[in-house]
Amino acid sequence: MKNIKLIFTLLAIVLLVPSCENDGGDSKIDTQNGAVPNVQKVEDSEAFVNLVAVNNGDPINLQFTIGVGEGEELVQSMDVLLFYYKTDGSVYKGTLDNDVTSFPKTYSISQADLFDVFDELNSAADIEVGDQLLVTTNVTLKDGTNIQMVNDDGSNNFSPNIANSSFYDVIQTYNVACESDLGGTYNYTTTNASAPTGEFAAGPLTGTTTLTDNGGGVYSIDDASFGGWIGLYGPGNVATGVTFTDVCGQLSYTDADQFGEIFTLSNLVVNGSELSFHWENDYGEFGDTTLTRTDGTDWPPLHL
Questions:
Q1: Claim: this prediction has a pTM higher than 0.85
Q2: What CA–CA distance (Å, rounded) separates 88 from 28?
Q3: Is the CB of residue 291 less than 8 Å from the CB of residue 199?
Q4: What does the pLDDT look like over 141-184, one tens digit per residue?
């Protein structure tokens, strides 16, 4: 049951508050006695790497600020790092700036900057749909401790409570994508919702859902189960924290829900104003959903 899982989640957070997380370097990350960066995209700036502009040789301008999210009095300096994730699994690491001591500081990244920072990127042909650019920092404290937010292999080196903070973001990601316009409120119909603990809701479960445009083809979903959890566990049970990502028409679930569960899509079908798919998560819950537009337009040709 979801309420039982919520109790365990809250207990885990309480237990983690006084504890430390190994940062992979010579220290331990502890937001009570340490520090973390705050990386923010500049409002109204480009939220993704526009593949069309890259291929046309048009300028791109990714603007963000680097600040201190917590522990400002402890910070000596930061190195601003970039990671580039290829669709084939390769990860490139580069340094944009060293020994930054004045915060917040604003940066702008152009196509030329990407080629300068990454030896592996030499032309527009090396930038492909589905690639990702990640911005973060290494933090050096006044006592000499180094806090590494992302490991050299590109894996995250911070705990879920840091990742889910509402006060700061320790990383920002720019998807290599195309223009996307999926934001809006839609009617949903969900059937055959099921849970591994035996609950089942044949449906149809109906209601409305809102996809909130976060930029760069990323959309927050107010309930990633589209009424499925309500049918299984009762009113008030919704899957939050999950996003849809549209990368040049390729749709996928991204980010984990409030319980750390990962959602996936299958059987995606576009039929005019209706978008149908099967969703499931790694806890074992699943359902079949149709989203219907009510604005008189059709869904774009989305695919998996």
A1: no
A2: 32
A3: no
A4: 999 999 999 999 999 999 888 988 889 999 999 999 888 899 99
What tens digit of pLDDT does each residue of 59-105 get? 899 999 999 999 999 999 999 999 999 999 999 999 999 999 999 99
Question: Vertex 12, ends 11 and 13: CA angle to 5°?
Answer: 90
The CA-atom distances, in angstroms, between 147 and each of 72, 118, 296, 299 are: 14, 23, 51, 45
Distance of alpha carbon 250 from alpha carbon 221, whole angstroms: 17
Q: Name the residue with tokens 């990962």.
A: 262
Q: Is the peptide bond before 196 cis (omega within 30 degrees of 0)?
A: no
Q: How far, in Å, are 225, 229, 256, 258 from residue 205 at the CA level?
A: 11, 10, 23, 22
Backbone angle region of 198, left / alpha / beta, with phi > 0 → left and psi within -120 to 50 → alpha:
left
In angstroms, the CA 104 to CA 101 distance is 9
- Report how far residue 59's alpha carbon sits from residue 173's, in angstroms, rounded to the nearest whole number: 19
Please, which residues have CB within 8 angstroms of residue 15's CB and are 6 or more apart in sequence?
none
The dihedral through the CA atoms of 89, 95, 99, 105 has a sign that is negative
Specify the amino acid at residue 167.
F
Residue type, 64: F
